[in-house]
Amino acid sequence: MTATIVKFYQTGTHTVGNRLLDPEHRSVQADMRRTNSLNSGHRACQGCGEALGARYAIDAAMQATDNQLIAANATGCLEVFSTPYPETSWQIPWIHSLFGNTAAVATGIAAALRVKGRTEVRVVAQGGDGGTTDIGFGCLSGMFERNDDVLYICYDNEAYMNTGVQRSSATPGAARTATTPAVGAAPGNVFGQGKNLPLIAMAHEIPYVATAIVSELRDLEAKVKRAMEIRGARYIHIFVPCPLGWGTASNQTIHIARLAKETGVFPVIAAEHGELTKVSKIRKQLPVEDYLKPQRRFAHLFSPTPNLAAIAHIQALADRNIRRFGLIDAAPVGAAAGAGDN
Amino acid sequence: MEKPFAITLDVGSSLANKTGSWRTCRPLYVDRLPPCNNACPAGENIQGWLYHAESGDYEQAWRVLTQDNPMPAVMGRVCYHPCETSCNRGQLDESVGINSVERFLGDQAIKLGWKFNPPETVTGKHVLVVGAGPSGLSAAYHLARLGHRVTIQEAGPFAGGMMRFGIPKYRLPRDVLEAEVQRILDLGVTLQLNTKVENIEESMQTGKFDAAFLAVGAHIAKRAYIPAGEAARLLDAMQVLRGMEGEEKPMLGRRVVVYGGGNTALDVARTAKRLGATDAIIVYRRTREKMPAHDFEVEEALQEGIMIKWLSTIKNMSDEGTLTVEKMELDEKGFPQPTGELETLETDSLVLALGQDVDLSLLDGVPGLEIKDGVVQVSHNMMTGRPGIFAGGDMVPSERTVTIGIGHGKKAARNIDAWLRGELYEPAPKHALAEFRKINPWYYEDAPKTVQPTLDQARRQSTFEEVVGGLNETNALFEARRCLSCGNCFECDNCYGVCPDNAVIKLGPGMRFEFNFDYCKGCGICSVECPCGAITMVPENV
Amino acid sequence: MLKQCEGSHAVAATVALCRPEVICAYPISPQTHIVEGLSEMVRDGTLQNCEFINVESEFAAMSVAIGSSATGARSYTATASQGLLFMAEAVWNASGLGLPIVMTLANRAIGAPINIWNDHTDAMSMRDAGWLQLFAENNQEAADLHIQAFRLAEELSLPIMVCMDGFILTHAYEGVDIPTQAQVDAYLPPYEPRQVLDPREPVSIGAMVGPEAFTEVRYLAHAKQMQALKLIPQLAEEFQAQFGRDSGGLIRTYRTEDAETVVVALGSVLGTIKNTIDDLREEGRKIGVLGITSFRPFPTAAIGEAVRYCERVVVVEKSFAVGVGGIVSRDVRTAMREHPHPIYAVIAGLGGRAITKDSLRQLFLTVMDDKLEALTFLDLDWNAVNRELERERITRRSGPIAENLLRDLGVVAARVG
Hints:
Strand content of chain A: 5-15%
CATH superfamily of chain A: Thiamin diphosphate (ThDP)-binding fold, Pyr/PP domains
Number of strands of chain A: 8
Number of strands of chain C: 16
Strand content of chain C: 15-25%
Distance between the termini of chain C: 55 Å
Largest sheet of chain A: 8 strands, mixed
Mean pLDDT of chain A: 93
Mean pLDDT of chain C: 95
Structural class of chain A: alpha/beta
Distance between the termini of chain A: 28 Å
CATH superfamily of the largest domain in chain C: Thiamin diphosphate (ThDP)-binding fold, Pyr/PP domains
Oligomer: heterotrimer
Structural class of chain C: alpha/beta
CATH topology of chain A: Rossmann fold
């Protein structure tokens, strides 16, 4: 009998915590002393993915830096729901300047810290997809190119949610937004090439680029931690479903994120100096319909008659992600092995 | 710091904004009844003891287990584990190997000499237990732990009852049985062997017992009329299996035919094989699908070379050992009907395994008792029509398995305890069942069941060594950790982590969580993302 | 130490003495020589403890300064013209957040048509942005104003634009007394930020403020600028005590004591105006000039007092509000509310057109006869303008004004037509 069962931990690292894991493998979010950098009382919608992603990322950054952190925040939902006078939900030194200049503000903060010899204090810039891929893109690219010591985090909910769900350059093809209504011959957003900011960041060959998703907390935290071990320009792109903008139930936020990953719609990867270093594999591949169907922004793809061409197009994009990043292992996964990626 | 008006704010001040007022639904922590617990005839808190096993605290696991069942090493071998049949994990990959973990815990306890904690109080009451089978031993154990004095009177020369006389050694090694019996006796239970209770009223009066629990096993084999020659070697299953416990092993010959389709038939056939039979053939009147024996036992028997003649009945047996067998066919309702087609089968002995009856003679003359279909009728609290006399196991209307017997013993003990105090035992209300659809299986690691090692075929042909081996610590741990903890919080921290509003308060290890309704907006993510379905959403009264 | 040097160089050397900690810049003419000089000083170690950041736009330049200033670093940048407009959003933001950034504005016209030469349109476009705006008359003052600006900005926690005329000052060689480090250190203490991003005492800076408090926030910004009206003369006085030079202040008058006519202007044109006035004074004409150093905050009281006893005021301004007229003159008129006199707005020197002594003399003679229109354009080529207007009257679509004018003027080669 050769039953060589290696470490198996019931829920492995899939759950937020796991009493069976060594303390060093537990998540920041499981910690009773986590910072709650974004505290209760914020005005985000019920089930907000961005609120969740921001707390995940910033708490992890706080732990990685021993609470020596300053954040610059772009205009957008995150800013509006966290700091309406007279209350702020932030527990960390935080500044909001403008919509499109967050990366540059962060550069200024980093420069000030360097000149003051306080390099133990680290800088995070954060914004939504609009503030990152559109209006803030120039400043972001400049920050990358100069390799300033800033971690930029984009919370991508694929449209301008704060202003009422208008299209951004991160809005996927066929998605209905307030400015890409589901009417006419090609309803919803156009199928362009999109603006794949993680790949653009990789093209800058900055020290660290990663994508993450609110449904994979450990991976997200590990990436923030890794980012904080590195000096220079770093970029993390976090996929954060928006119940309001996507037309999903408030309790589905994490589930939808998971579907985005399991269908290959959103690849979860990491790269250092422009080279791919980590790929989070798809656990159980699903067709893109499973991801699209629960979202009202894609409802026109299914009724009154299914838009098979558009669905096939989205499937092809997912398949390309799977091919390009190797999201599925060619070899069968060992049956009883493994405890996740701890 | 001099903070400019309105533009610069004090950190964390949003706590003043009680977003709980947005809520239309509120989350609620619930405990649901895990299907394994629900299915266990012994009423074990399976999920409860697996929880401790998961963290490697086997002694605590054993202690939780033995709150309900004092014989895990036996149970881990002979139980037909309906818990595994109902296990939700079976719908995911394969059921958790609960039975094998139970056996591991039982074996650990024997190996490391774990003992039961003695009762904290002594009641001064004295209870007679008739029969040292699973039900009697179980009742004795529970009564003793409740502080009662217990005397077991056993007609036979050994304790164990059907665990000894009905289950072959290769399924239950006797040292395991003895160790677990001894541990019960170590609680101060008196065991009187070779003491047959002829008349229960008398025995109770003589011994000044305050109550009695009757747990006599079904040792009397049912006979079917089969015309047989004088010299034909015709035995019953109980003779064979009981004989295995004595000095003189039964003489069955090289060709053995067993008649019947229950587990006992298989036990006898497999025993015959081990005693040297070249041909061990089971004759059964229906099909494999209709066979009452458990499929895994059929499978093991077939692996060992046992042959089974389906759809056959035995008409007669000659002196020379020639059996006349008639082929049967199933009618529309699935009942076997004779076809008139006959054949012969040569054998050295024929063993009848057609079921057993209980010897109820000890009840003769007891007023108020009702006996129906060969068993004693009891009320829901296990008491017979005679106040103070309770009964369980094979004696009462029920399926007859060791586990059910153990369960009867526990239930009877609790009722006896209450009755002795002049009360009525009220079991705690059961939670709603934790159904599979309430589970979020994503969160569990993929992990098919650990297959227990099985003894080499060659050794199974000739020895009575245990066929199915135990798990080692590594795979017992693995198996325990496959538990989904259906319907009960196992502190995975998911709710604490996934709340976008930090509205879940973590109370610390073992203390679970609380909602902070000042800030909970009622989004419901915690409920959807709870792996085990322990959070439900209820409408808010607005 | 008196040094013959380019204005940009003088400013760069002086800014360096102010110990800036973060300098961020994007090149735009005519500001380039200033930031080139600073970059060199950072590189060669002359200027230590300073980060020089080459950003990708003026918008980023101001944004970097916002970040660094909010983190407690003395922050400096320089720009001009289109650059100022490109950073406009951040300009407002810096003042709104109360960050004491000092920025040199090498004044330049705004296009289209694109024009790299001097006027004050850029500064005027940001006059309501909440920044203090100080205008230098010459290179010495340009240098000196920067020292005062850092002090003033940090005391008020407000940003300051030091405006100096592009090319006319930035690229002009003059003798400038560059102070010593010890002198500057004695005048300008290290920056102690009013609010700072620091993990030791976390705060949230930049909240969203609704109708319930927005007016109050704006009023408080105004109140702070009003405080500057007192502070600016004090600092100029202290400056004089420390450096022995009269520099800065709110306004500067020249021969206005008995003037019947007071000319008002900002920046380098004051020199030419003074020369013209000297000539007219020799001819017995009672005329003087008032230079506005602090355009924001606007020294309403000081100006009102200075022009109280004159008979007329003429504002010569290098900026123009299309559709209305003068910009500075409108503010000056406000200052004369208590003692109204006729006021003339003269738009001059747009896009770098030279303001000559001759033209000014002619202008002043006309105004002293009260024969000037309320809004006048100095040296306007009426022929060119009228031809274009006529053409437009006839044909509704007539092509770009600039091109047509240039064709009329014979500037554009025949191939264009």
